[in-house]
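Team,

Forwarding the record for the chain on the shared tracking sheet. I've put the sequence and predicted structure together so nobody has to dig through attachments.
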Amino acid sequence: TLDSMYMGGVLCGNHLEIINVLRNFKYAHCSLTGAHSPTHVNVPFLDKLKILSSSRTSVVLNACPIGENHKNSIRRNKDWDKIKAFDGLDRGFIPQIKPRLFESMAMRSLALVRRDPWNVVENFFTPGEDFLYWETLEELEHLITDIRDNYKDYLSIVESAYTKCLDYDITPVISRLYV
């Protein structure tokens, strides 16, 4: 059993900091490339789900890093500044709900979601009931440790998220592929 899993590339310093926290645990890092020494490179989808199903937690970010070229492209559009997703464009991130969140929940891995200015996850799930927020790396490390040491205390969150995934018709599709 893994303590935690991170799925995705290391596209910015924030991602690398998360990987460095995970290195203190029994973890998996699945990435399409070998940059920053992931534990698994270009893993087939079903294999990734199998790894995920063996992980107590998964670290999820719902913010996409963007560069100056993206910001300039956005600013060329009329009324770009009236679109909530572009609030605080200079932070270098925009909101992005990722399938990894749903995959984690469908595989019964407790989603540890980094709080961001948009929190789009709340359009689908309830904090504390279906997933847990974290804001600092210290908080992330504490959560992973506590869940590792007291996993049974968190099972109701895992099961609530899994049940809600059924409502989104995600779990049956993934389960049918996985089984």
